[in-house]
């Protein structure tokens, strides 16, 4: 994500008077929304054991948090002159707050709390991605965000699997609209430099907690033959994490 801001420099692509952003940015944000829906649809239609979907979601969310958001937050914090401890403090605080939310109420509703927290965190994350699209129309960045969005849609659908259909649709709609909101808002009012590191770190903490919830969900969905089913769960987490990490590395190399 940070490569988008670096590619754009310190100025906006759009009109400095705060008019609507270029059509390319809006089209890119719309494609990101479609990729999110495609990822969610793939998660719903995934064949085989249902535990593999939250297991894959766990790997995806963890890689996004550790290899994408946290490095971006540290780089932005250094540029803004913030102390080194600010980023881990914000990430650990949001992780702890989401953990407390998941533990409130009936224990049977922890997955629900984790799913809603992940949905909210992804919405904020994708708002920042929309801001990146407002700052650059690079094909490499747009392609990376499309792959990124499909993975996020899969993870979101997996974590909201126990929610009623209408509520799931609402959160998915929010996840699809937040990049468009990021494009529009950033074109009119750029994000303050001092706010972005805290925002990225907080979202990283939320997604890390969501990854933990997803892995626990996959663990509880295993059938009785535990030894047989442990291998595919581990493989799903590993493959999803490796695939997402490779996508991020390829993007950084471009």
In short:
By secondary structure, this protein is mainly α. The protein contains nine helices and no strands. The N terminus is likely disordered.
Average pLDDT, all residues: 69
C-alpha geometry: globular
Uncertain stretches of 5 or more adjacent residues: 2-20, 105-111
How far apart are the first and last residues' alpha carbons, in Å? 12 Å
Q: Beta-sheet strand percentage?
A: under 5%
Oligomer: single chain
Helix run count: 9
Radius of gyration: 18 Å
The major beta sheet can be summarized as:
none
Domain tally: 1
Transmembrane segments: 23-43, 50-70, 82-101, 113-133, 139-162, 169-189, 195-218, 230-252
Protein name: ZIP family zinc transporter
Keywords: Membrane, Transmembrane, Transmembrane helix
Descriptive notes:
By secondary structure, the chain is mostly helical. The protein has one domain. It is built from nine helices and no strands. Helix 2 runs parallel beside helix 6 and helix 4 runs parallel beside helix 8.
